[in-house]
Design brief:
With 370 residues, this protein is α/β, with parallel strands linked by helices. The protein contains twelve helices and 15 strands. Helix content is 33%, strand content 24%. Strands 14-13-12-11-7-10-9-8-15 form a nine-stranded mixed beta sheet. Strand 5 (105-109), helix 5 (116-127) and strand 6 form a beta-alpha-beta unit. Helix 4 (90-98) packs parallel to helix 5 and helix 9 crosses helix 11 (340-359).
């Protein structure tokens, strides 16, 4: 161990070692100089187990393999558990971790759970465990251009935020183990599964809480010719969503998942009463200017973060997420940077948006929260 004695090593277990679980494994390997090690994995899917085991062996990390999360918890090997299993399994796994006799800090992938009711149960259960930190993996906050735009907004350069527009134009959902992500019942729906990231960012930029949501969306192009166990996928592939906040600001999401022919996957615009800021991913460009200085006064900068040792699938944000969470654990912080309430509200907005499409009307956050 190059930095710390082995006794100070923070030991991680990863529950669910599909694509995202293995991404966490690689990120943690790149954090090894910070005194971390993955010591255990749990996954009932043997091909995923083998891929993760091969990775760990290539890192010279001896790891224990379990078929389920309960065995991993009962082994008492881990200080921290990363939950990167299919969305519909998060609730039971989180409840088992929170109720376990040994305290484990947790980083759970987004979305927190697939329903508001399950999110609320997890939030309430975790309140009784002051010996644990639970962070939700809303890692878009850490992407360098997004983080820079957050810094500009919070610094007051744009004035009071009035409008937040987020466009995600991208490729269709990837194939996952047993195609679990093709159905709303498993994923929570596209606007929960995919877009909780963006609803979290809207709330962060607006500095306010959501009040009501209006959405329009459909399945227009993707997955129409797919059939799994006799069922056709029901996940939408495009939508417009409007979110109104309690301080009068508004957010808008423009999602399209059949837009591979695009330069930037995400384009974020934040407009305040005195200025405007934009972030572009993956170009990693940030632009900002004021109404007074006009178009000629717009500044452009390349957003970079020298701390990132591994870019991975999310432009270094997963690496920074782990780095910040590790710091919170070591500092014995009372709360992580992205807490369970953040996870709950991001899911609630997504659920309200899905319901709005179904009902053809505005849906209040109060309606889905109760």
């Amino acid at each position: 161990m190059s930095v710390m004695a082995a006794s100070n090593t923070v030991k991680y277990g990863i529950v669910g070692v599909g694509m995202m679980g293995r991404e966490h494994l690689i990120n943690l390997y790149h954090l090894r100089s910070e005194g971390v090690a993955v010591v255990a994995i749990a996954d009932p899917h043997l091909p995923s187990q083998k891929l993760a085991l091969d990775l760990a062996h290539s890192f010279n990390w001896p790891i224990k393999v379990f078929s389920g999360h309960r065995e991993l918890l009962d082994s008492l090997l881990c200080d921290v558990v990363v939950v990167s299993t299919p969305n519909m399994t998060h609730y039971q796994i989180l409840m088992d971790i929170i109720n376990h006799r040994k305290p484990h800090h947790v980083l759970v992938e987004k979305p927190l759970c697939t329903t508001v009711a399950h999110c609320k149960e997890v939030v309430n259960a975790a309140r009784k465990r002051q010996d644990m930190l639970v962070q939700v993996g809303l890692e878009y906050r850490y992407m360098p251009p997004v983080a820079k735009l957050i810094e500009i907004v919070k610094g007051g350069s744009l004035g009071q935020v009035k409008m937040v527009a987020i466009r995600e134009h991208r490729f269709p959902f990837l194939v996952k183990v047993n195609n679990w992500n093709r159905f709303n019942i498993n994923s929570g729906g596209t606007l929960v599964e995919k877009c909780c990231h963006f609803f979290d960012l809207m709330r962060l930029f607006a500095g306010a809480n959501p009040v009501r949501v209006m959405a329009s969306g459909a399945i227009d192009v993707n997955h129409k010719d797919e059939i799994y166990n006799g069922k056709v996928p029901d996940i939408i592939d495009n939508a417009y969503v409007i979110v109104e906040f309690d301080n009068g600001s508004r957010g808008m999401l423009d999602l399209c998942m059949f837009a591979e022919g695009t330069k930037n996957e995400q384009e974020i615009s934040v407009v305040g009463e005195i200025g405007k800021g934009e972030a572009f991913v993956p170009e990693s460009i940030v632009r900002f200017g004021t109404r007074v200085d006009g178009r000629n006064g717009v500044q452009t900068l390349k957003a970079e973060n020298d701390q990132i040792k591994y870019d991975g699938l999310h432009h270094g944000s997963s690496y920074l997420e782990h780095l910040h969470f590790l710091s919170a654990i070591r500092a014995k912080a009372k709360a992580p940077a992205v807490d369970l309430h953040d996870g709950l509200v991001s899911v609630a907005i997504g659920v309200a948006a899905q319901l709005s499409i179904e009902k053809g009307r505005f849906v209040t956050i109060e309606e889905v929260m109760n």
